[in-house]
Write a structure and sequence with these properties.
The protein is mainly beta. The chain is 4% helix and 57% strand. Mean pLDDT is 84; it is low at 1-16 and 410-414.
């Protein structure tokens, strides 16, 4: 089956977000994937301000907010996959995150986010009557997190804040592999499927955390006059994916379904970052996040001859960025009020021998006097592998974010 899928992908174009980790967790979205963060290379989790919103790796940051903020983000992503003489392109549209933070004066700041943590999308239909080839390959998987957060500044050390968040996991996994009558390219182990019928292997299941409603992050932040720092710890957790396998012949006969629950142990994450401000409006920043995977990930696999596990490696992300804050004086020229951003990152994927290099530029355009802003980021990069059997990928994306800032209720005193 692995050889057949490879041959089909060499024969025609297909729909995908990333081909990496399809049988495992899929593509991981870098935490804090707002348009503003993306514009500066996903760095700046230590940067404070009402326009920053919630940080998923640093919940302590929002303690310094003085106004309510609502942030919604959109991503248009164009990806390509290359191997040998094959080249494929796909356009994907998604909403990677949205968040709301609400300052409560001396009682701290409450926030909530909806974030797409992992995703896998791919669809391909092939039919060639002359060669009697017919197949369908489809993956749809998404792991979302609902993340309530709370942060507060220390009473007598106002430059220091503490924050915590809970990550409630939800989502589903669906995979459908269908072979037509001619399946000579499959392995001998699957020769039973050589019939005059279409044979479908359909798998479906939901994602949740094993034996617990959520996993958690805690963080501490120091905001100085020129420099700000944060440190955070995210607890390990085990993802549970209860799968139901159905094998169907020509949409008429279905074998008795089988069930299997796979468990994926996600390790703890450590993260830290710094933001240094100079000449009032200029900021340079750097962030690091790291996880040590020590167990391979069980794949969905199933009745076809697919790999049983995805091998893992230490997963880390290093990002650097620059931002020139726009003027908050409404009567300044519009060009002075625009926020300008740039950044770059290097990410070691959780999938063994896969790494990613990317860069971005961005800007924040103020809309009116009340603090509403339209954030735009253009990002691009490559995903590389040392394994010749895997695909190399390149991508370019446009992120749009709409940020609304206002004084709903009582604002925080300084």
């Amino acid at each position: 089956m692995k050889k057949l899928i490879s041959a089909l992908l060499c024969a025609s174009s297909f729909s995908f977000a990333s081909m990496i980790g399809l049988e495992a967790l899929g593509q991981e979205q870098i935490a804090g994937g707002s348009a503003a963060m993306a514009g500066r290379g996903f760095a700046g989790n230590a940067k404070t301000g009402d326009a920053e919103g919630i940080s998923l790796v640093n919940p302590a940051r929002q303690a310094f907010d003085t106004k309510v903020s609502l942030n919604i983000n959109f991503l248009l992503d164009i990806s390509t996959a290359d191997r040998s003489n094959s080249h494929f392109t796909k356009t994907n549209v998604s909403i990677p995150s949205m968040n709301l933070s609400f300052p409560m004066g001396d009682f701290g700041t409450f926030g909530v986010s909806l974030w797409q943590h992992y995703s896998a999308t791919m669809r391909e239909d092939v039919e060639n009557e002359e060669e009697q080839v017919k197949a369908e390959i489809e993956y749809q998987s998404s792991i979302y997190e609902l993340v309530p957060t709370y942060a507060i500044r220390l009473p007598f050390f106002r430059a220091i804040s503490l924050g915590a968040s809970a990550h409630f996991v939800m989502g589903s996994f669906t995979r459908n592999l269908t072979l037509g009558p001619d399946n000579s390219a499959i392995s001998s182990e699957d020769s039973w499927a050589t019939t005059s019928s279409d044979v479908s292997d359909y798998v479906k299941g939901d994602w949740e955390i094993k034996n617990h409603p959520a996993y958690y992050s805690i963080a501490a932040q120091y905001r100085g006059r020129m420099a700000s720092y944060f440190f955070s710890f995210t607890t390990p957790y085990t993802l549970s994916n209860e799968l139901v396998y159905n094998t169907q012949f020509s949409e008429l006969d279905t074998l008795a379904p089988t069930k299997h629950t796979r468990e994926i142990k996600v390790p703890a994450m450590l993260a830290t970052g710094v933001n240094y401000r100079f000449n009032k409006r200029h900021n340079v920043m750097a962030d690091i996040a790291w996880r040590a995977w020590d167990k391979d990930i069980e794949n969905a696999a199933g009745s076809w001859d697919l790999s049983k596990v995805t091998k893992t490696q230490n997963d880390f992300n290093i990002s650097v960025g620059y931002q020139r804050d726009g003027s908050d004086i409404f009567y300044d020229s519009y060009w002075k009020r625009i926020t300008y951003r740039a950044g770059a990152w290097f990410k070691n994927w959780y999938v063994q021998d896969v790494s990613e290099i990317g860069g971005s530029i961005g800007a924040g355009f103020p809309l009116g006097r009340k603090g509403t802003m339209l954030d735009l980021a253009i990002q691009g990069g490559v995903r590389l592998t040392d394994d010749d059997r895997n695909w190399s990928e390149s991508y370019i994306g446009i992120r749009l974010g709409l940020l609304g800032v206002g004084s709903w209720g009582k604002t925080r005193g300084q």
